[in-house]
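Dear Dr. H.,

I hope your travels went smoothly. While you were away I took the liberty of generating a structure for the chain from your last submission, since the lab meeting agenda had it listed for discussion. I wanted you to have the full record in hand beforehand rather than looking at slides cold. The sequence, exactly as received, is reproduced here:
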Amino acid sequence: MSDATFKKDLVASIPSLRAFARSLAGNRDRADDLVQETLAKAIAKRESYTPGTNLMAWLVTILRNQYYTEGRKRKREVADSDGIHAASLTAVPQQPGHLQMTDFLSALQSLPEDQREALILIGASGFSYEEAAEILGTRVGTVKSRVSRARVRLEELMNGSSDFKHDENAIKQSAEMLQQALSV
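The corresponding predicted structure, in token form, is as follows:
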């Protein structure tokens, strides 16, 4: 694969990478930073990419590893300790029909990260179970199990589970993530 083809394929992958980054980060700016870092690492490590293999899976793996590396660093940080910024992110739904969608978005963010990640890879990003397993570094059966549990849990939450909490911040994060995923 020539350098020009590699770079062209990198540019073509940006919308999908942004959608996946948003599903992980839940924040547009952080997702854009993740994508930028992913592309920089991909260019720097271009020789480690095997031509003929799935470039998108390779890039998503880099992005995912970067996300977890940053997450470990952020655990030691205290951000918005007084909650002022978080309070400014809430938005009231403008239409009554919008309420069901906001509940779905809130429920999506309440899923455990491993389930949400598997569900987004399969459902929104269009990866096969095999590709998702490769990206996540696990077996196909594990991915299928995570997706199945995520779907069951979403259904429970959407059908009035008593432990469902409507979270405006989660709604905004999920809405941005899904909007980006649907625009790909």
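Two observations you may find useful: The CA atoms of residues 133 and 143 lie 6 Å apart. Residues 3-25 form the longest helix (23 residues).

With kind regards,
E. W.
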